Every structure is written in C-alpha cells, then in structure tokens.
Amino acid sequence: MKKFLRIYWLESIILFFSFIIKITGINYGLPYSYHTEEYKIVNYALKFGTGDFNPRFFEYPSLYLYFIFFIYGIIFVIGKVLDFYKSVSDFALLYFRNPTIFYLSGRIISSIFGTLSVLILYFIVKKIYDRKTAIISMLLFSVVPSVVVSCKIVRIEMALIFTSLVFFCFFLKTFYDREDKDSN
Q1: Cβ-contact 112, 22 below 8 angstroms
Q2: Nearest to residue 80, comparing CAs of 93, 71, 90?
Q3: pTM, rounded to two decimals
Q4: What are phi and psi of 143, to 5 degrees?
Q5: 152, 150, 153: which is closest to 161 by C-alpha?
C-alpha cells in the first residue's frame, strides 16, 4: 500500500479531493426534496417494496431503480439487525416520518459513481495519452459544475457516465490488445 501511495500520491489526493467536493453539501434540503427527479426515483424504487417489480415508469432505466431498491434493502437489513425497526411497515413509515435516509443514501451512491468516474477517466486518458494528461483530466472532471451538482442529487446521470466510461475503457483495452496482437 505504501508503494502504491508513493507512486500514485497525486492521483490519490485528486480522487480524495473529488470525493470531498461531491459529498460536501449532500444533505441540502433534507428531509425535503427540491428536485423532481429525486422524488421520482426514490418513490418508484420504494414501490418495489410492495412486491410488484414492474416499475410502470420508463422515463429512467429500470436497472437503476432496481439498484436503488437494492440499496434500500441493504439499509432495511442493517436497520433490522440493529433493531431500528421491527417490520417492513416500520421501515415504510420511516419514509413518511423522515425520508432523509432514502434521499441521502441515493445521493451518496451518486457521489460514489461520480468519484469512480474520475478514476475510470484517469485510466482511459492514461491509456490514450500519458500520466500527466490523465492527472489534468482527473482534476478538471472533478470540478465540472454540472457533474458536482449531479452527484448531490439522486439522479441517473452519474451512473450513466460511470457505466459509459467503463464500457469505453473495455473498448480501448480490446482495441489496444487487438492492435498489439496484429503487430506481432
């Protein structure tokens, strides 16, 4: 670990800085939601708790809604083990009493996707150009205002950017591997 941090200390600092920027102010407006997208995603994800896994809402990709529901399931299991609530109905009532945990967990997931996007972008740019350009790209992408704001809201954008970058990274790996194989 020490060797890794010695070599990649600047990248680690930028990644940490990126996460801090994205997580700062994440509790804005809670327990209320001032963004319509947030309200829709949280409510449709919670509706899966009734046992009906048909979202009947296709404005956003369903997989993201299922993922958010999975996160809520983890929160439920942890809360049940720690005896915060006795049943599923207690958990459902929590949403009506104080929905902060539902919005905050989704916002944290968006921030994590945003931070991981910075990391994937580093690998992509380093593969195409060099380490210096990759570090500059990391730094610039970390402070793009629309990205920072999207990380503070339960929205699909950060998950979309992350998965797009991951697919592009695999595409580059395949492309360069094939190029290396053809040159031999």
Answers
A1: no
A2: 90
A3: 0.89
A4: -115, 10
A5: 150
Nearest to 109 by CA among 55, 59, 54, 45: 45
pLDDT in the model for residue 65: 92
- 10-residue mean pLDDT profile of the chain (184 residues): values are 71 93 90 82 90 86 92 93 87 89 94 95 93 94 93 91 94 79 64
Query: From residue 12, how far is each of 1, 22, 42, 64 by CA, in Å?
Result: 12, 15, 32, 28
The encoded tokens of residue 90 equal 């207690």
Q: Return the axis-axis angle of helices 100-128 and 131-142, rounded to nearest 10°.
A: 160
Tell me what pLDDT residue 1 has. Answer: 61
Q: Do 50 and 72 touch, CB atoms closer than 8 A?
A: no
**What whole-number distance in Å separates Cα of residue 5 and Cα of residue 23?**
23
Cis amide linkage into residue 31, ω under 30° from 0: yes
